[in-house]
Automatic annotation (TrEMBL):
Enzyme kind, highest EC tier: transferase
Single GO biological process annotation from the record: methylation
EC nos: 2.1.1.72
Name recorded for this polypeptide: site-specific DNA-methyltransferase (adenine-specific)
Catalysis performed (reactions): a 2'-deoxyadenosine in DNA + S-adenosyl-L-methionine = an N(6)-methyl-2'-deoxyadenosine in DNA + S-adenosyl-L-homocysteine + H(+)
Pfam families: ISP_coupler, N6_Mtase, TIR_2, Type_ISP_C
Assigned keywords, A-Z: Methyltransferase, Restriction system, Transferase
Length: 1224
């Protein structure tokens, strides 16, 4: 395997959305190690962007020109980057590929002689199915990448051959013409061989037996094999019963790439080899060695190697590890080309179907019936495009299901395939001949079929089919794969989970998976791996009954449903020797089944219906009536689209989502609970209910954010109510939480979120609720985690940690600092609800009301440094919104709003709240009075368009700062909300504050709140004032308490001791034993508060200004980028001005993950938003020195803050802290 090809994009900023969609389609190539992409979005703050871009352009092997009107108009893209790219192409240093994004006249351009993509020179933006266009582009790029890799391999080989000839290579090396992959470099081989020799020397004199020497050679093979994405599996039993010392396999493990057999040096190698051959050893790519000599059988040849010679050993390793049997090579090429051709053929089929849907009466009738079936049985919101995709999928893959599974009657035997075939026959009866249309795919089908026949083990064939299927979906529909979270479960996880459930059944209930009446359901079966595993585990005598009566599984996607049916039926056939259709598989949406039970006057009514076809209906009804005891599987992990403009949402489930609201949401203390509608959370809620109050087990492998994130506290609470014992095995892999990890190497699914295995037991005879937890080392790679599961085999072998959380909501919350519960809460949800309803709370808190920071969901549209620019943006967006609203009303308000409204992010940014207003037909109106000042980031003030329609969530801000006048008198303390993963901190302000100020989920506590009549009310509770006055005297005021809180929240010892508590809860405040300590805290808190609120009034720090006369800063004070030097001693403001002598101490004042100064350096730069094209310019024409002055002022603020905090440490010590309430 060669090193990844380095790719560089040349594109205009306006085309960033196209770039990001192309990157989505290229993800698979990156995961396969074929591609390494780079564009200017990867630039680090403070880097010299021109130098970095030039360096990346010079190193790139593949350069993509993203052609559009904006590209042609860009002086930098067209005049600099493109010219250099073409020069490198002329010198054969890189491949340049133009990609047509949007229509533009490009004939006659310098790149016009190059072959463009898409191949038909049709710009991507004009395609009806842009996914198909991007997939065709990726297909073309695959061929370019293969060519680049081939050329690179040839260059490496030529260098190696020249080196060998100069050194006088052996006859074997001279005759073997192997193209050495770039990853198996001479340096890598040299170092691996040196380590092998060293290990052999360590055995000299006492260990010359086969086992010791075999270990050394095994390590050599393992190390070098991993470099070419192969793995060596020691002593794996082959289908024919033979057990070689090592089996060389690809990473998917369904192809055997080679066999290795080790012998002791004193044995006659030739005689030993002959014995193995007589025993039936295959000689396809088989290596025999005794640490001195080696014999390699390959491609009908028998080659000898002297292992004492490093050169021959290197040649042996290269030949053995890079060999690919012809049928495997043909398969790999076929699958790649199959994926590349899918978009083209699918597009042609879609055109035919669309045409026939208007002309072919028989097809129209069949399609209408099929559409009605899909909408009434699968998903009432399924679109016509999705239904058409099902027909295309069936047409393109049906042959493989018949041939790979040796099941020629598949279409007639499978109840769903037979129904779809009726529609296909109506289509092909007039439109085209199926065989002729698919003839161009014959050689792909044949290669895949040939490879499948070479795989005798059915488990390996399952993995093989999963790979083919995944490639199909990546080629056909990236968004579909993302919506359903298509990720297949490694066999080690399946084995572990099934064994754990069987073990738990025996321990808790005295039965097993084989016991009649123990009914098992996989609700999202994918390709059927869990059911197949269970079938293999069951005793043969129990198999017939379990297969016919106790096993159930559901699947909603057509292709995996087909594969699951065939996998399960074949597994039964292998065990029983007879074919029997599997009656337990249903083509149905598991969560949709929950929607078919409604409440009518307090009585549960089961709604009668047809589930696609009669036989499928009978299966579904049988499953619904079954007393399920075990639910096991891998639920979808996708939470839905990231942006409202994407139009790629997960569907809602009215009744199930209401159950979530009544349980997980109702008992959550979190503010943002959107993640509780993640697909896997829905499956946990459904599974808990599906046991219907009976004893049973739920075992899922899933996203494990629910273990510790604050949004899932209500879910954790109910899981411990619903089950008596919960085990959770934390497999880590959360790349977003730990950027040092890689999804492809550390995550068992190759995804970005953490993964865990949960086994939840409900046993009525167990009175005590138990929670057991184990986490594997976070830095373990995927292979280490899977090996761990393989070795442990089941939950019973895990050294569990018994968790005893203080509350059911916080499983992993720290148990230290017990005095925390005796401190005064800053605020509570109960107190907040009481304050907003104007009633007294039963819980004593410092503040009555508080609010989240404002969430806009469209920051670049409603924030700006420039007031006039903000007005222009908002007015444009309002105009687009109102035009869409009027157009929608004229069109009789079509239900599919997402497809109707404009999705152009250069004109409007949609959000769920904005669409709610749209559906209510609320017209947007611009109001100049809605323009307010806001604190966007620390010491970064911007204009904000403060409007309920254009802000996603305003919280209580209309009551906290209703008018600009209120900003003059009110003060707020902002702290991180529960679930914050950054270091704790706080910041005072008198402006509306953004949700992402410096921490996560900012909560803001005001001194005043305002009524609808405009009258203000103090927000410090009377109960808190009375508490403090009892301790420190009647002269204590509510402002004293406000300043006291700000001081304590800055105390280093407080932040350190309660760091873990502050991740899960809002702050609590101790009282102080000494009156003088309290007074000191009040005074220092007041000074800190005034310093941070009035930061623009402090004296600027005297940074030394160094001016470059070549670039007059005084003549042009427009700042584009602020650069901090690596030693953090200077700040380059512009080519003409550098600020020097930045004090090192100022970086100690940190808010979140950055110092206050670094926040300003990041924010006060010229920035272009890639999606909208909006430019944010912090320069002030009316005050050109503002940014430089602000930098100096923030240095002053930082140093003065440190001084005040040090005084606070001296005046108030932890020994002064005491409880606000008596300890329970």
């Amino acid at each position: 395997m060669a090193r990844p090809v380095k790719l560089f994009y040349v594109y205009a900023r306006e085309d960033r959305p196209f770039l990001e969609r192309l990157e989505q389609h290229l993800v698979l190539l990156e995961r396969q190690g074929l591609l390494a992409t780079w564009h200017d979005g990867a630039l680090l703050p403070g880097s010299d962007w021109r130098r970095v871009i030039r360096q990346q352009l010079e190193q790139a092997q593949l350069i993509l020109l993203l052609i559009s009107p904006a590209f042609m108009a860009s002086d930098y893209c067209y005049g600099v980057e493109m010219q250099r790219a073409l020069e490198r192409q002329r010198r054969d240093q890189a491949q340049v590929v133009p990609i047509l994004l949007r229509p533009v006249v490009w004939e006659g351009a310098p790149f016009a002689h190059l072959q463009v993509l898409p191949a038909n020179a049709r710009p991507i933006s004009t395609w009806a199915n842009q996914d198909a266009a991007f997939a065709e582009v990726v297909g073309g790029l695959r061929r370019v990448i293969a060519y680049i890799m081939e050329q690179e391999d040839q260059r490496v080989y030529n260098r190696a051959q020249q080196h060998a000839l100069r050194k006088g290579s052996s006859s074997v090396a001279a005759e073997v013409l192997i193209s050495t992959p770039a990853a198996l470099t001479p340096t890598l081989l040299k170092r691996a061989i040196e380590r092998y020799r060293k290990q052999l020397r360590s055995y000299e004199g006492f260990a010359t037996h086969e086992l010791a020497l075999r270990t050394a050679f095994q390590r050599l093979l393992e190390e070098t094999a991993s470099a070419v994405n192969l793995k060596l599996i020691p002593e794996q039993t082959l289908p024919n019963g033979l057990r070689p010392d090592g089996v060389l396999r690809d990473v998917n493990e369904f192809f055997i790439r080679g066999l290795w057999e080790a012998k002791a040096p004193h044995l006659d190698l030739e005689r030993e080899v002959q014995r193995k051959i007589e025993a039936g050893y295959p000689l396809r790519n088989t290596l025999f060695e005794n640490s001195r000599r080696a014999i390699l059988y390959q491609d009908g040849q028998r080659l000898l190697f002297n292992l004492d010679d490093d050169s021959e050993l290197r040649d042996l390793l290269t030949r053995f590890l890079t060999y690919s049997e012809p049928q495997i090579a043909r398969f790999e090429a076929a699958v790649e080309e199959f994926q590349d051709r899918i978009p083209e053929l699918a597009a042609r089929l879609l055109e035919i179907i669309q045409q026939e849907a208007t002309q072919n009466r028989a097809f129209i009738a069949a399609l209408n019936d099929f559409t009605t079936l899909c909408r009434s049985n699968l998903n009432p919101q399924i679109s016509q495009a999705e239904i058409t995709e099902m027909l295309v999928q069936h047409l393109l893959t049906e042959r493989l299901f018949r041939t790979v599974f040796d099941n020629p009657d598949f279409v007639s035997r499978n109840v769903i395939a037979a129904q779809i075939e009726q529609v296909i026959r109506a289509l092909t009866s007039r439109a085209f001949n199926r065989q002729e249309f698919l003839r161009s795919l014959d050689h792909f089908y044949l290669a895949i079929e040939e490879a499948a026949r070479s795989i005798r083990d059915w488990t390996e064939r399952q993995r093989f089919l999963n790979t083919v299927y995944e490639r199909f979906f990546q080629g056909f529909s990236v968004s579909k794969a993302d919506t359903y979270g298509i990720v297949y479960t490694p066999q080690e996880i399946v084995d572990f989970m099934v064994a754990s459930v069987d073990e738990a059944l025996q321990r808790e209930f005295g039965c097993s998976l084989a016991t009649p009446g123990v009914k098992i359901l996989d609700p999202c079966t994918g390709t059927g791996n869990f059911v197949v595993n269970i079938l293999k585990r069951l005793p043969r005598g129990a198999l017939r009954q379990k297969y016919a009566e106790d096993l159930f599984c559901n699947e909603i996607m057509l292709l995996p449903y087909y594969i699951a049916s065939l996998n399960i039926e074949h597994a039964y056939y292998e065990r029983m020797g007879e074919y029997e259709p599997f009656p337990g598989i249903c083509f149905v949406d598991t969560l949709e089944l929950a929607e078919r039970v409604s409440s009518n006057g307090g009585t549960v009514v089961r709604q009668p219906r047809l589930y696609f076809v009669e036989e499928n209906t009978q299966r579904v009804l049988r499953e619904k009536e079954a007393d399920i005891m075990v639910i096991i599987g891998n639920p979808p992990y996708n939470v839905g689209q990231k942006r409202e403009n994407e139009n790629n949402k997960n569907r809602p489930y009215q009744l199930l989502d209401q159950r979530i609201r009544d349980t997980y949401v109702r008992d959550s203390q979190a503010t943002n609970r959107n993640m509780l509608y993640d697909a896997y959370v829905r499956f946990f809620r459904w599974a808990s209910d599906r046991l219907r109050g009976r004893d049973g087990i739920v075992c899922f492998v899933s996203n494990n954010s629910f273990i510790d994130q604050i949004a899932f506290d209500g879910m954790r609470h109910h899981l411990l109510q619903d089950f008596t014992h919960i085990y959770h095995l934390d497999l880590h892999g959360n790349v977003r939480r730990n950027p040092r990890l890689s999804g492809t190497t550390h995550n068992v699914f190759g995804i970005q979120v953490g993964v865990g295995i949960t086994l939840a037991i409900r046993a009525a005879h167990q009175q005590e609720r138990r929670l057991s937890y184990y986490r594997v080392p976070e830095d373990w790679r995927k292979e280490e985690k899977l090996n761990f599961l393989r070795e442990k085999r089941s939950m019973g072998q895990i050294p569990w940690q018994r968790l005893q959380p203080a509350t059911p909501r916080h499983w992993l919350a720290p148990q230290s600092a017990p005095e925390w519960s005796t401190f005064l809460p800053l605020g509570t949800k109960e107190g907040k609800r009481a304050a907003t309803s104007e009633r007294e709370s039963d819980h004593l808190t410092l503040f009555a009301a508080y609010s989240l920071g404002i969430q806009t969901s469209r920051d670049v549209w409603v924030y700006d440094f420039d007031r006039s620019q903000l007005i222009s943006k908002v007015q444009q967006m309002i105009e687009v919104y109102n035009n869409d609203l009027a157009r929608w009303q004229r069109a009789n308000k079509p239900a599919d709003l997402d497809s109707f409204v404009s999705a152009d992010e250069t004109k409007i940014k949609w959000s769920s709240r904005l669409k709610e207003y749209f559906l209510r037909q609320v017209e947007a109106r611009f109001q100049a009075t809605s323009i307010r000042r806001a604190l966007y980031r620390p010491f970064t003030s911007m204009y904000l368009y403060f409007d309920p329609l254009l802000n996603q969530r305003q919280g209580l801000w209309p009551r906290l700062l209703p008018t600009p006048v209120s900003e003059e008198e009110n003060r707020l303390i902002c702290v991180p909300g529960p679930g914050n993963r950054k270091p704790f901190g706080c910041l005072a302000t008198n402006h509306i504050t953004d949700f992402d100020l410096a921490f996560e989920k900012i909560q803001c506590f005001p001194f005043y709140v305002y009524g609808k009549d405009g009258n203000r009310q103090e927000n410090i509770t009377d109960g808190a004032l009375a508490l403090f006055q009892r301790h420190y005297g009647s002269q204590v005021s509510k402002w004293d308490l406000f300043h006291y809180a700000y001081a304590i929240l800055h105390h280093p010892a407080y932040r350190e001791r309660y760091a873990e508590r502050l991740k899960y809860e809002l702050p609590r405040l101790p009282l102080l034993k000494r009156n003088e300590a309290f007074r000191a805290a009040v005074s220092l808190g007041r000074q800190l508060l005034e310093l941070h609120i009035h930061y623009e009034r402090v004296d600027p720090y005297s940074l030394r200004e160094i001016e470059d006369e070549r670039f007059s800063y005084r003549d042009n004070r427009h700042i584009e980028r602020l650069r901090l030097s690596p030693d953090r001693r200077t700040i380059q403001v512009s080519p003409g001005l550098t600020l020097a002598d930045v004090p090192e101490d100022c970086f100690r004042y940190v808010l979140g993950h950055r110092s206050a100064l670094e926040w300003v350096l990041e924010q006060y730069q010229l920035r272009r938003d890639q999606r909208s094209g909006i430019v944010l310019d912090p320069n002030r024409p009316d005050d050109p020195d503002y940014i430089v002055r602000l930098l100096k002022q923030v240095v002053t603020v930082s140093l003065q803050t440190l001084t005040l905090v040090e005084e606070l440490e001296q005046a108030v010590t932890p020994e002064d802290w005491q409880a606000a309430f008596p300890s329970a």
